């Protein structure tokens, strides 16, 4: 899945599902018709190579999805 990652001028780091628009000091998700596209905050210390000056950068996100099986406790035992 392709994602865009951008760092705002104040250091905030965000991931977007489409290329965001650069504003004065921040990035704004693309607006498709009347729906704002996805934007997710990331830890500011992550991806130090992404700076305000070189943002936004396109990345390939790879997810590893697996089922977690619930463990049932019986009488206090696991």
From the structure above, extract its key features:
78 residues, mainly beta, four-stranded antiparallel beta sheet, two-stranded antiparallel ribbon, 8 strands, 0% helix, elongated
What is the gist of this entry?
The chain has no helices and eight strands. It has 78 residues and is mainly β.
Give an overview in words.
With 78 residues, the protein is mainly β. 0% of the residues lie in helices and 33% in strands. The chain has no helices and 8 strands. It starts with a strand and ends in an 18-residue tail after the last strand.
Uncertain residue segments: none
Give the topology string: H per helix, E per strand: EEEEEEEE
Strand order within the widest beta sheet:
7-2-1-8
How far from one another are the termini? 38 Å
Number of separate strands: 8
Number of helices: 0
Percentage of β-strand residues: 25-35%
Rg over alpha carbons = 18 Å
Helix content: under 10%
Q: What's the rounded overall pLDDT mean? A: 86
């Amino acid at each position: 899945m392709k994602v865009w990652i951008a760092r705002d001028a104040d250091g905030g780091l965000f991931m977007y599902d489409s290329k965001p628009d650069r504003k004065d000091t921040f990035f704004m998700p693309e607006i498709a018709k009347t729906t704002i596209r996805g934007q997710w905050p990331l830890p500011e210390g992550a991806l130090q190579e992404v700076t305000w000056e070189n943002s936004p950068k396109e990345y390939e996100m790879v997810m590893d999805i697996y089922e977690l099986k619930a463990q049932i406790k019986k009488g206090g035992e696991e």
